[in-house]
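We now fix the convention by which a protein and its fold are recorded. The integers have meaning only within a learned vocabulary of local backbone shapes. A record is reproduced here so that you can trace the correspondence yourselves:
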Amino acid sequence: MSAPSPTLSPAPLSVGQASLLVAEREITSQVRSKAFLISQLITILFVAGGIVAMGLFGGGEDDAPEVAVVDAGQAAEALPSDGLERVDAADMAAAEEMLRDGDVEAIITADAHSPVGLQVIGLDSEPADVAQLLSASPTLSTLEDESDGGLRMVVAMLFGLVFMMLSITSGMMIVQNTIQEKQSRIVEILLSSITARSLLAGKVLGNSVLAIGQAVVIAAAAAAALMLSGQQDVLDMLTVPMLWFVLFFIPGFVLIAAMFAAGAALVSRQEDSGAVITPTMMLSMIPYFVVVFFHDNSLIMTIASYVPFSAPVAMPLRMFFNEAMWFEPILALAVLLAAAVAFMLIAARVYSRSLLRTGQRVPLREALGSSR
């Protein structure tokens, strides 16, 4: 008889393979979740509906007031070509009838005693709005485009809100999944096959892919809403800054996600998670409040462009308005990448030394300094 062939054990997974498997598990579990799909649908409807509403109701102009003109003579030539809807009346009696019937808002007729040679007559109150349209005024201009400030606020709020919303929602999913895996002891089974660092890398990778996917879907919905509401010019202006935003968003999100994962590894119960994730949530809100309140302060925006937590929003905003020199986004991106790598290494240390410890919350100092 021949000897039985030895059983070959499967080759251990490499760090990359294990991380990809964990990332796939994170993506599929969330995509199949009804809560995730519903929240994404609500976000899309909110963004698209808000843009369409602004296009339909925010840019409308008041109708020009109609006035009855009676024998104004040469002074009628002074009437503005726009701003007033002129209705010629045969005589004063016809004009008064139109005014009493509500067909016109005022009557304009000649007046030799008036400095402008015209008299404006209202029904029961002086038509000051019509008189203002007849008043001569100098040419008005500004040193800066007045739409620049409004556009700056819109872009700042858009970038800041998207970064804060996606960072917090995806980060909370990492926190919930990590704590559930500790409570159910699933993490012990996972760590028997892969390392804690692979598990952390997979979670961050999977949620990063989901966050970027959500950002792309939101951007597509916003673009469609802008096109449908006739705001193509706004869409053209936002295309380039959106590309810069995505470029800075990736390392910025990795940094925040690593902090959420490390904080979740320190606790074993959902009710204990508040104390460890609150600092990370506050840091996720920094970009939004910085750009909303200080978007027109060049000094603060320049400083925020190099701070890792606010750079994903501040630098693309400065690039959009051509306020940064050519080397600044490269330098800021390098600082952000270095910070993301550093925080991933710190998070991996905390994650690997706290993930199997249950019961009381693990102090951060102990997780960083103790041996496994």
Observations:
- Strands lie at 66-70, 85-88, 106-110, 118-121.
- The two ends are 49 Å apart (CA to CA).
- Confidence is low (pLDDT under 50) at residues 137-143.
